[in-house]
Amino acid sequence: MAARGDPPGPPEAAAFDAFVREYQDMVYGVAVRLLANEAEAEDVSQTVFMRAYEHFADVQGQPRVPGWLKTVTTHLCLNHLERYRARWRLFSELDAADAPVMDAASGAPDPEATLDAVERRARLEQALGQLPPHQRVPLVLFHFEQQSYDDIARLLGVSVGKVKTDMHRGRLALRRWLS
Amino acid sequence: MTMEHDELERAVQRALADLPAPRAPRGFHARVMSVVVPAPVVGRPWFTWSWPMQAAALLLVAGLGAGGAWAWPVLMASLGAMVPDQVHTGVGYVSGAAETTGALMRVMELTWSAVVAPIAKLVLLLTAMLCTACAVCLAALSRVALGGASQS
Fold first, then answer.
1. Which regions in chain A score pLDDT beneath 50?
2. How far away is chain B from the Cα of A90, in angstroms, using its nearest Cα?
3. Most exposed: A54, A120, B76, B78, by fewest CB within 10 Å?
4. CA A110 to CA A15: how far, in whole Å?
5. What is the DSSP letter of A94?
């Protein structure tokens, strides 16, 4: 087995190839929902696999690999949001508590009763992506990654109350696209 | 209010659970592998090799060229001397072909000594200089332009 930090040799390169094929959808899925940007999600996902490659001798074949990958992806996405979107105050407690509820699809027409399930899902996905990050990120972590309010608050460095308020506003914005 | 909040949470949970999982783009796997696992040296362009490998490759090519230039007349002379022996000891029907081959060898030897040999060293030197110049230019280009872009 290679020492920690050693680049994998040819046999391990083949194993890493299979590793990427197995987990690329999962990693990319987490990243694209947290970032709501395909190009940025690709960049972050690539960085995740570079990290995995550096520790491949340790993580290969471990049952905790999916959890480890999701954790790394989440942290990198949050770092990315903080670093490259400085103008947006990520999870500021100063965010106006009485701000009007954000309607992510305010520019879109009202959903018709005849909207089919596929289109409704597409609209919902689009609306989720258009939510401001401080609403979208906790929603994604809660509903897709099954993290608790406490864990999300700890991860984001904000209060549980702030998390619940942001998530409720996000849900209200998505409500019109619920079937 | 609490009831409405819980109902909304459950409704969002159901709706989001119905969303299809995003799939990685088609070229993502290749992109990751090309960045993470470097291609074997033999499969990479010469100008991406490390400088000792580049120098060794240049020396090898120059050595092969010089060796070929030095050995070619000797080889031709040896072949020319061998062909008549084979003709003498071989069966009759080969003799015609052997004589033709011998004549061809002599023509090639004459061509070498009269035309190629005088300029071979010059061509070899020119080729080596051009290769070196190209290597220096490509190395500088990859450091200044391509290297900077790939690091961002």
1. 1-7, 87-88, 90, 92-94, 96-107
2. 23
3. B78
4. 49
5. T
Which ipTM score applies to this complex?
0.72
- Give yes or no for A16 touching B (CB within 8 A): yes
Residues of A in contact with B20 (CB under 8 A): 121
Distances A41 to A29, A44, A123, B20, B23 between C-alpha atoms, Å: 8, 5, 20, 17, 11
* CA–CA separation, A20 and A9 (whole Å): 16
Question: In Å, how far from its chain's centre is CA A134?
Answer: 12
Residue-range definition of the domain harbouring residue B149: 51-152
Q: Is this structure's pTM higher than 0.90?
A: no
Q: Which residues of A touch B10 (CB under 8 A)?
A: none
> How close is the nearest chain B Cα to the Cα of A97, in Å?
17
User: Inter-chain contact A16–B37, Cβ cutoff 8 Å?
Assistant: yes
The DSSP line for A36-77 is --HHHHHHHHHHHHHHHHHTHHHHTT-TTHHHHHHHHHHHHH
Task: Summarize pLDDT for A134-163 with one digit per residue, the tens.
Answer: 999 999 999 999 999 999 999 998 999 999
Domain contains B33: no
**Full set of structural domains in chain A with CATH:** 10-84 (1.10.1740.10), 117-177 (1.10.10.10)
Sorted by sequence, the CB contacts under 8 Å of residue A38 that are 6+ apart come out as A32, B25
Q: What residues of chain B lie within 8 A of the CB of A42, using their CB?
A: 25, 28, 31
Q: Is residue B114 part of a domain?
A: yes
